[in-house]
Amino acid sequence: MSDLLTGEIVRWTRIEHGVWRLYAAATDRGLCYVGTPDMPFEQLESWVRARIRGAELVRDDAALAPYVRELAEYMDGARRTFEAPVDVRGTAFQQAVWQALLGIPYGETRSYSDIATLVDKPAAMRAVGAAIGANPVLVCVPCHRVVGKSGAITGYRGGLDMKSKLLELERDRQA
């Protein structure tokens, strides 16, 4: 995970796989964005404008093919972990939270307080929630695996329906 530079090219594609319809984007260093299902292209444009100032958005289905393949395999239940690199930027705290999310095993969940403890900020559950909400790479950085302390399905940038579907997919594919 690293800082993104201005003036670079952000390549994007639209993923249409089964019930999933969403945009994904990558820099030369890795996947930088996985969007919310059924949202317009403008959501991606707005995200890039705000986070990678001066970047040029270029549709490049071929360049995104390895990421699309891994996401499709995950959506089909044939993949549990992602190998393709991610290129996400954020504060040191956000980076620590996102790194903690990568440690949550497939099919398991953790609470916000679990993540706060993992990043050595046990009283910072709201800040952890904000960092999780700022995760730009849905699915691959598995923020959907974070639930309320009671196990309740709580907020998710991709919407509670997407979060529920992802958790159900993982639960159904547990061996």
TrEMBL record:
<dbReference type="InterPro" id="IPR036631">
    <property type="entry name" value="MGMT_N_sf"/>
</dbReference>
<keyword id="KW-0234">DNA repair</keyword>
<dbReference type="GO" id="GO:0032259">
    <property type="term" value="P:methylation"/>
</dbReference>
<dbReference type="Pfam" id="PF01035">
    <property type="entry name" value="DNA_binding_1"/>
</dbReference>
<keyword id="KW-0227">DNA damage</keyword>
<dbReference type="InterPro" id="IPR008332">
    <property type="entry name" value="MethylG_MeTrfase_N"/>
</dbReference>
<dbReference type="InterPro" id="IPR036217">
    <property type="entry name" value="MethylDNA_cys_MeTrfase_DNAb"/>
</dbReference>
<dbReference type="Pfam" id="PF02870">
    <property type="entry name" value="Methyltransf_1N"/>
</dbReference>
<feature type="domain" description="Methylguanine DNA methyltransferase ribonuclease-like">
    <location>
        <begin position="11"/>
        <end position="87"/>
    </location>
</feature>
<keyword id="KW-0489">Methyltransferase</keyword>
<dbReference type="InterPro" id="IPR001497">
    <property type="entry name" value="MethylDNA_cys_MeTrfase_AS"/>
</dbReference>
<protein>
    <submittedName>
        <fullName>Methylated-DNA--[protein]-cysteine S-methyltransferase</fullName>
        <ecNumber>2.1.1.63</ecNumber>
    </submittedName>
</protein>
<dbReference type="InterPro" id="IPR036388">
    <property type="entry name" value="WH-like_DNA-bd_sf"/>
</dbReference>
<dbReference type="GO" id="GO:0003908">
    <property type="term" value="F:methylated-DNA-[protein]-cysteine S-methyltransferase activity"/>
</dbReference>
<dbReference type="InterPro" id="IPR014048">
    <property type="entry name" value="MethylDNA_cys_MeTrfase_DNA-bd"/>
</dbReference>
<keyword id="KW-0808">Transferase</keyword>
<feature type="domain" description="Methylated-DNA-[protein]-cysteine S-methyltransferase DNA binding">
    <location>
        <begin position="92"/>
        <end position="171"/>
    </location>
</feature>
